[in-house]
Amino acid sequence: MLEYLVNQFDEFDYFCYFFRHYTLISKQWNTEILPKLRIVDYYIVIFDKTDPLDIQILSNLTNRFKLKYRISIGACNLKIYNLKDKVHHVRLCQDFITASDLETLSNYKYLKKIKLSQFSPFTDRGCEVLSNFASSNKGIKLSLDGVGNTDKPIISCLFNLNILHSLIFSNDVIPNDTVFQLNGISKLNLTSIYSQLDTICRLFENTPNLEKLCLFDNSLEEGQYFDDVLKKITHLQQLKELLLGVSDSCNFQSIVYLLNNVKSVNTDVTFHMVHYESVEDVLSSKINNSNIHTFDFSSPLKFTPETDELNNFNLLSIWDDKSHLQHICVKRKKDLLVDLPTSIYSLKTNYTLNKNVVSETYSSLLEVLIDNRLINLTEINIDDLRATDMKIILNSQIPKLTIVKVQFLNDQNGLNQDLIQTIQNNHTVTNLFIFHLSWYKLYSFYETAIQVLKVNNTLVSLYLPYYKNDEVTQQYIDSFKEIIINNHTIRRIYIPLSDSKSPKLLLDLFRLFNRYSISRNT
Q1: How many CA atoms lie within 13 A of 250 on its CB side?
Q2: Which SUPFAM superfamilies match (predicted)?
Q3: Helix or strand run (H / E) with residue 152
Q4: Beta partners for 72?
Q5: Which residues make beta-bridge pairs with 481?
Q6: Which residues are CB-neighbours of 166 under 8 A, at least 6 positions away?
């Protein structure tokens, strides 16, 4: 339970408060329990404005009780040597970064992630220091936001750090004569980068071990097509995740070639200027790739020249064998929904239709969900849904459906009593998220959550929309206490840190949740 509580937030103040509080219990507790705690999946963030006295207090607690955690520091805390063995992430986000700044990195032997902003003033000495540091600390993740005029030697340094594990590079230019030595890199993200076609192709020839590739809003020289880049991507034998947002011109058959040959399991591609030989050429194409398990079919293909015959085209319609698809996102179009594969585990919809045709596509979606064809479905993520249709989904009791996410409950009836009763009586969904309502009249966050949890003993996580006029009362706190004592399933109730008119009562509610290990993360 203690480990659960310490992992609720990544704020430095919360972390300090937690250990200052829980080190007062007993000496045996401090020597046998606290050293076993793990801070998982995040960094304790120390901001530039963090009080040095608090940092020293944490250092003393760390040394005394052998606490285990990771720290992220900013430029103003580069010489935080009393916690140097805890520093795993450095953020150098300032207008000028000196070689001296980077030389301090050698003090952090466990450093694995560096974020740099405005790289252009960086010196050659800085490159040398970074290169030497990276050479002795293999597996470094480097994030760099350029300003469009970075010097060539610096770019050359960047793309020759062969021991990099991950590189995020944005808002800059890759010179034509850049030499690439990135055989060890497994994750690459290029955003808003300008380069020649030959240059970007050579880059992929020298990154054979890429497992994740993200390309967004990059630009080739005018008149150059993206086709050769797509072919190079198919040669990446270790690729597991591919995210593309391509604004340059490319040919439709090159997209088909990519999707038939790419090795990535998780694939999400968007193309904004697709050329084609004929409509028949597009409609008669076939995609058959058993590697792809996750695909976003809602991402647009924008054909040029435009034609009415391709206005409603979607890659799902030419996807030959759909049995390997497990997680997909689709537009709510009737002709697509009726052909969903039975193998999928998660379904996400993307709203692309006018209001006057929504009802028809709702009906299509519900028909597919309820006719038992989606027997493996475990998650539904719908961006826009009516209350009456949500009732149908929940009442269907799809046997493996455990996660339902509704971005916008678009109905004047809102979360009415009928829908609340449906949620109360559902016995399969363990994680329910309703993020926004179109109609807040007569709605109360606290009353609705209490009504649901008094009856439903299946939910583990509950997220309901929060209305700014909702105020916690002592009666609500008493009701939550009664629920938590009797309901041993619920573990997470999302309550925002709002500007409450009753801050003491809100704090009392949070303390109640903490006492029973109920997360309130938003």
Answers
A1: 27
A2: RNI-like
A3: helix 152-158
A4: 45, 89
A5: none
A6: 140, 141, 142, 185, 186, 187, 188
Q: Give dist(CA 256, CA 233) in Å, integer.
A: 13
Partners of 328 in the β-ladder: 295, 347
H/E run at residue 461: strand 461-463
Query: What does the pLDDT read at residue 333?
Result: 63
> Is-contact 8 17, C-beta < 8 A?
no
User: Mind listing the pLDDT tens digit for each residue in 281-290?
Assistant: 999 999 999 9
- Residue position matching structure tokens 């030499």: 179
| pTM, 2 dp | 0.77
Q: What are φ and ψ of residue 31, in 5° steps? A: -90, -25
Mind listing the pLDDT tens digit for each residue in 91-130?
776 555 565 666 677 777 777 777 776 554 455 555 666 6
Residues 6+ apart with CB under 8 A from 112: 88, 89, 137, 139, 140, 141, 165
Going by C-alpha positions, the residue among 297, 300, 358, 359 that lies closest to residue 330 is: 297
Question: Which pLDDT does position 355 carry in this prediction?
Answer: 39
Q: Which residues pair with 189 in a beta bridge?
A: 168, 214
For residue 91, give both structure tokens: 């953020």
Candidates 351, 358, 357, 381; CA nearest to 369 is 381
> Three-class SS of residue 510?
helix
Distance CA 123, CA 297 (A): 45
Which ranges of the chain have pLDDT less than 50? 120-121, 352-359
CA-CA-CA-CA torsion sign (141, 65, 53, 17): positive
- pLDDT per residue as tens digits for the range 476-519: 999 999 999 999 999 999 887 665 677 788 889 988 988 888 88
Token output for 443: 């709605």
Cα–Cα distance for residue pair 325/342, rounded to 1 Å: 9
At which residue do the structure tokens 């450095």 appear? 90
